[in-house]
Design brief:
Elements: H1 2-15, H2 29-50, H3 57-67, E1 73-78, H4 82-85, H5 104-114, E2 119-120, E3 123-125, H6 133-139, E4 143-145, E5 150-155, E6 158-163, E7 169-171, E8 177-186, E9 191-197, E10 200-205, E11 212-224, E12 228-235, E13 238-246, E14 252-257, H7 265-268, H8 277-284, E15 288-291, H9 295-300, H10 304-319, E16 323-328, H11 341-358, E17 361-364, H12 365-368, H13 371-377, H14 389-404
Parallel strand pairs: 1-14, 1-15, 2-14, 15-16, 16-17
Antiparallel strand pairs: 3-13, 4-7, 5-6, 6-13, 7-12, 8-11, 8-13, 9-10, 9-12
Length: about 400
């Protein structure tokens, strides 16, 4: 039965011109080698095709409950690197200035909204791999202040934003809101801080004998788009990993960008402390995780075995509460930058296997942009690595199709 289904998938691919018969393979050893490679590629393509209908049952269950008002939100997490950050869609030396709005999660939110699914996107997480506070604010101008703040421990979205001074950190929502979640590091020696919107102020003590990443829920009596300010008032350091704000009267899909510029998969798989990225992902408890990594693994010499182990750890954590979509990252230009073509083919096959064995959906972004050569010729990247805004939109579209099934 499985073989029969595989053959049907391969025949379907052939109808679309994706498979070809190597006519000279019987007489030419070199062509025979190419034929073997083609067969291997065809097998991978067939496996990818078989995953186009991946069940995503936990996600579908949450979405159904959302429609029936049995839950108020479904949560989508985006663990990733600079290609999820949205680098390439902005300006500046790293193409990150004002890039947040064009990032993969942001484009997904827009497309879901156009399909009739309400989303919650008034959120931020971590420093996103930016090297200075000025870069952080330039990446997402909804944030302001943070004078004298710096990077704290690594958590959701990279380094938390930390301070031992009393200068406020401000986030201005784009819609009227009456609810907010503050993600902060709790441990001995931490400080006390306030959360203020308009005339309402709430006090949170992050000092506790139990080390943890805490999601503290706040309800405001007034619903408006006034800025939300966080101010340390006393004690030790305050370390804020993120903020989510929303209108409690509108059920929706909470989309959270946990991506960090420049990281390898091992960063997102770090479980060394309660607040580090892998454990923090478990605390967040997503209903769906969209994972895009390995670009920097390939570019920095991380072994394939180590990369697979890290990816599996992330998948396993995500699957505790939800489903997952794995994305093979696009690249432009010529080999061997970010992995020679044969090496990339091996890694891609491993990612397909991870998707198949874990029941995850799979998206081939390299194919979406026309392959390495196509992405180069059609201007899909700003620098050969990071997509332009229109390319991020293209890559978000198959995710939308999965989520609407």
């Amino acid at each position: 039965m499985i073989r029969h289904l595989m053959m049907r998938a391969m025949l379907a691919l052939a109808m679309f011109g994706m498979l070809s018969a190597p006519v000279a393979a019987q007489v030419d050893p070199a062509a025979r080698g190419l034929a073997v490679q083609a067969q291997q590629q065809n097998a991978s393509l067939a496996r990818e095709a078989s995953m186009q209908g991946a069940s995503l049952t936990k996600w579908r269950a949450c979405r159904a409950k959302l429609r029936l008002a049995l839950v108020s939100t479904c949560k989508i997490a985006f663990p990733g690197d600079s290609k999820t950050v949205g680098a390439g869609a902005g300006t500046g030396a790293k193409f990150t200035v004002n890039a947040f709005g064009s990032s993969r999660p942001s484009r997904l939110a827009v497309l879901l909204g156009q399909s009739g699914l309400p989303t919650r996107t008034n959120s931020w997480f971590g420093a996103a791999g930016m090297s200075t506070i000025a870069d952080v604010l330039a990446y997402d101008p909804r944030r302001s202040g943070f004078t004298g703040w710096s990077g704290g421990v690594n958590s959701l979205g990279g380094a938390s934003l930390a301070t031992a001074n009393t200068n406020p950190a401000t986030f201005t929502p784009t819609v009227p809101i009456d609810r907010a979640s503050i993600f902060y590091v709790q441990r001995p020696g931490q400080g006390i801080f306030t959360v203020t919107k308009g005339g309402e102020t709430f006090t949170i003590n992050s000092q506790n004998a139990t080390s943890a990443l805490i999601r503290s829920e706040i309800t405001f009596a007034t619903k408006d788009a006034s800025p939300i300010s966080i101010t340390r008032t006393s004690g030790g350091y305050v370390e804020i990993a993120g903020t989510v704000a929303w209108d409690s009267a509108t059920p929706g899909i909470e989309i959270s960008n946990f991506a960090v510029y420049g990281v390898v998969s091992g960063f997102q798989a770090d479980a060394s402390s309660p607040w580090t990225p892998l454990n923090a992902l478990g605390t967040y408890a997503p209903d769906l995780s969209v994972i895009n990594l390995w670009t920097n693994d390939l570019g920095t010499g991380v072994t394939q075995a180590a990369a697979i182990a890290s990816y599996q750890a992330i998948i396993s954590k995500a699957k505790l509460t939800g489903d997952c979509i794995l994305e093979w990252p696009s690249i432009a230009g010529t080999s061997p930058s970010y992995g020679a073509d044969p090496v990339r083919a091996q890694w891609k096959a491993s990612l397909v296997t991870l998707a198949a064995t874990n029941g995850c959906a799979f998206v081939d972004e390299e194919a979406l942009l026309g392959g390495r050569a196509g992405a180069q010729s059609n201007g899909a990247t700003a620098d050969g690595v990071h997509e332009t805004a229109w390319a991020y939109d293209v890559e978000a579209q198959p995710i939308v199709r999965y989520l609407l099934q």
